[in-house]
Write a structure and sequence with these properties.
Largest sheet: 6 strands, mixed
Distance between the termini: 30 Å
Order of helices and strands: EEEHEEHEHHHHEHEHEEH
Bound molecules: adenosine-5'-diphosphate
Structural class: alpha/beta
Helix content: 25-40%
Number of strands: 10
Strand order of the largest sheet: 6-7-8-3-9-10
Shape: globular
Strand content: 15-25%
Length: about 240
């Protein structure tokens, strides 16, 4: 369970871009984070994984207060937060398998993937995940031989390799066609359900968010202006 309480963020010499954001995400719930450009969505996501430090407020993941951890401790905790990116962020010249295994290392420099001998258990886990995302036949291909949708599936498997307690997903379908976008959203939805994972998906495609999330949080000017079911958003519009 993720709990955010009174989160604010002020960049240097600038007005507040998060103005006291509070919400909880229980296990298995997928939140679609929507709002116009500049609303503070990326800032919120980056505060949660502590790529940037919030100015005030609390972020709890289960019983850990992420917002007060030292950067060393946070590096450890970040292993429990799976990230899925718009542009996949794969290492092009590594194989699909190696990209998935690299999730095990968190966000270390990729060449460490070559140097590490992965235990058999982790290799089996990676095979299992490749099977789950439908890429078992592509395990030995180079990442740059895959289509966009396949690359995002690698990104999903890599995030799961961390055995995360939370998924943070940044515009996962922005580079994909509508049909592939729906397939990727459905896969994320199924996996969160199967694993009881809470997820926050930063997504500008509102119809897609409404179709594949349980709950919509609308940010505007750094404040939560909507928090409810997709159906409730539909009625408000
Ligand atoms: P969104 O993801 O909703 O488009 P952002 O979180 O990227 O919104 O940005 C929210 C506001 O914070 C914007 O006004 C943006 O210009 C500002 N901002 C984002 N990053 C920085 C930064 N590193 N320094 C100063 N201002 C920033
Ligand atoms: P996004 O696609 O997330 O909205 P942006 O174009 O807002 O991306 O931001 C891209 C990068 O520029 C981010 O790293 C963000 O922190 C930084 N940035 C955005 N706005 C500002 C700003 N006003 N001052 C300094 N850095 C900014």
């Amino acid at each position: 369970m993720l709990r955010i309480k009174g989160l604010t963020k002020q960049y240097k010499n600038a007005p507040l871009v998060l103005k006291g954001v509070s919400f909880e995400v229980p296990k298995g719930q997928i939140v679609g984070l929507i709002g116009p450009s500049g609303a503070g969505k990326s800032t919120l996501i980056r505060c949660i994984n502590r790529l940037i430090d919030p100015t005030s407020g609390e972020i709890w993941l289960d019983n850990t207060l992420l917002s007060s951890l030292s950067s060393g401790k946070m590096r450890e905790q970040r292993r429990h937060i799976g990230m899925i990116f718009q542009e996949y962020a794969l290492v092009e010249r590594l194989s699909v398998m190696e990209n998935v295994l690299s999730g095990r290392l968190g966000y270390l420099p990729f060449w460490r993937t070559f140097l590490r001998r992965f235990p058999e258990k982790e290799i089996q886990m990676a095979f299992g995940l490749l099977e789950r995302v439908g890429l078992i036949d592509h395990a030995n291909k180079r990442a740059d031989e895959l289509s966009g949708g396949q690359r995002q599936r690698v990104g999903i498997a890599r995030a799961l390799m961390q055995q995360p307690d939370l998924l943070l997903v940044d515009e996962p379908t922005a580079s994909l066609d509508p049909k592939t976008s729906r397939q990727i959203m459905r896969l994320i939805q199924e996996i969160c359900f199967e694993r009881g994972l809470p997820a926050i998906i930063n997504i500008h495609d509102v119809p897609l968010a409404m179709q594949f999330t349980h709950r919509i949080i609308g940010l505007h000017g750094g404040s939560v202006v909507f928090d409810g079911s997709p159906e409730a958003l539909d009625e408000e519009a």
